[in-house]
Amino acid sequence: MPHFTIEYSANLDARLDMGAVVEVVRKAAVETGIFPLGGIRVRAVRCEHYAIADGGADLGFLDMVLRLGEGRDLATRKKAGEHIFKALSAYLDPVFAQSKFALSFDMQINDKETSWKRNNIHDALKVE
Question: I need a surface site. Which of 73, 81, 95, 99 has the fewest CB within 10 A?
Fold first, then answer.
């Protein structure tokens, strides 16, 4: 289950290809080697209404949260998180260079006792 949710300020649409952003994150997640391919999900949610710092219209943000299941030690999670953040941050270098921008990434672990899933993608990938 690695599920990435990206929330971003609507003013980034003019500066960024969000389809490419989700692909950068997906690819970096695969490269870590710690997530099952069939469980990776990356989604982006455009925030039309937002307020940042002093309210300047040129200020932007991208906030990413990764929800994942239990079972990976801290060192493994940190290494994977650093890899993903580095790839995303590098992709966003032009946005940092052209505007005032905030990037954040948090990792959350789901409690397996209160997390339910149904997924046939894993089996379909094995057949391919």
Answer: 73
